[in-house]
Amino acid sequence: QVQLVESGGGLVQAGGSLSLSCAASGRTFSKDAMGWWRQAPEKERELVAAISSDGFSTYYPDSVKGRFTISRDNAKNTMYLQMNSLRPEDTAVYYCAADNAPTAPAWKVMTIISDYDYWGQGTQVTVSS
Question: Between the CA atoms of 92, 79, 10 and 3, what dihedral angle is there, to the nearest 10 degrees?
Answer without folding.
Answer: 80
